[in-house]
Amino acid sequence: MISIIRKQNMPAGAIFCTLLALTIHQTLTTDVSPTVVTPETSSPPASPATPGPPERGSYNVTNATDTVCLLARMGLQLNISFISSSHGTTVQEVLNLHPNLIKFSGSCAPDFATLKLTEDNITLTFSFSLNSTSNKYHLSGLELSAALPDMAKRLDVGSTTLNYMVGTLGHSYMCQKEKTLSVTQDFSLNTFQLQVQPFSVNGDFGAAEECELDEDDMLIPIIVGAALAVLVLIVIMAYLIGRNRSHAGYQTI
């Protein structure tokens, strides 16, 4: 006799409870991605935009008799490095000096002259020395004192062993091109359209002695012009030689 097992139908309530339990279990066991919190980091200081060429200013120094003894015309741009008080790191900044805000003074002696420019909390001092034996002068010193709002401490830098702007007594030194004068690791000066005469001033600038950069600009057109002249001469000579040979081929018999 074969036993027959009858499949008993599960009550509807039990089915609903089973499905609900499975759904809750699946929801509780589903992996939930943990929320990742990105730590906040302080961004480095943004590099300030480099300004354009500075405006050219005119400055002079008078002696005890109120006679002009030093003349200067130039645009000036400072390149400085300092510790930022807001970021605590070293930053580099390029600043233009503004002639309309600058107060100037100085002194003159037979073999030494100074020009002092002050704008707000910035003071820039030029020192010129004269060699009476060779009658040559030069920029021997540059000193900068600055207290900008973001500086952790005042910046005082300079050098008294420079050898820039070499000129002849009675003449002015000129450099129209932008030129960078390195002073210290934290300070250099860019000059634009510069003309200066620190000694033997007779009312106005003397004959200008140009810097190497300006001389190079004049030298290039001269070299190009000379090369073209030589090329034209070679062409003319080749033409004349060819013409003479052509005539030689038709001699009268």
Q: Could you walk me through the main structural features you see in this protein, from its secondary elements to its overall organization?
A:
The chain has 253 residues and is of the alpha+beta class. It has a domain of 158 residues: Porin, CATH 2.40.160.110. Helices cover 22% and strands 39% of the residues. The protein is built from two helices and 13 strands. The strands form two sheets. Strands 1, 2, 3, 10, 11, 12 and 13 form a seven-stranded mixed sheet that branches. Strands 4, 5, 6, 7, 8 and 9 form a six-stranded antiparallel sheet that branches. The protein is extended, with a radius of gyration of 40 Å. The N and C termini lie far apart (150 Å). The N terminus is likely disordered.
> How far apart are the termini?
150 Å
CA-atom Rg in angstroms? 40 Å
Low-confidence stretches: 1-8
Measured as a percent range, the helix fraction is: 10-25%
Overall SS class: alpha+beta
Oligomer: single chain
Which fold name is given in CATH as the topology of the domain at 57-214?
Answer: Porin
Strand content: 35-45%
CATH architectural grouping of the domain at 57-214 = Beta Barrel
CATH top level of the domain at 57-214 is Mainly Beta
Please provide the ordered H/E string of secondary-structure elements. Answer: HEEEEEEEEEEEEEH
Shape: extended
Largest sheet: 7 strands, mixed
The total count of helices amounts to 2
- pLDDT averaged over residues: 82
Strand count: 13
Subcellular location: Cell membrane; Endosome membrane; Lysosome membrane
Transmembrane segments: 218-241
Signal peptide: 1-29
Membrane topology: Single-pass type I membrane protein
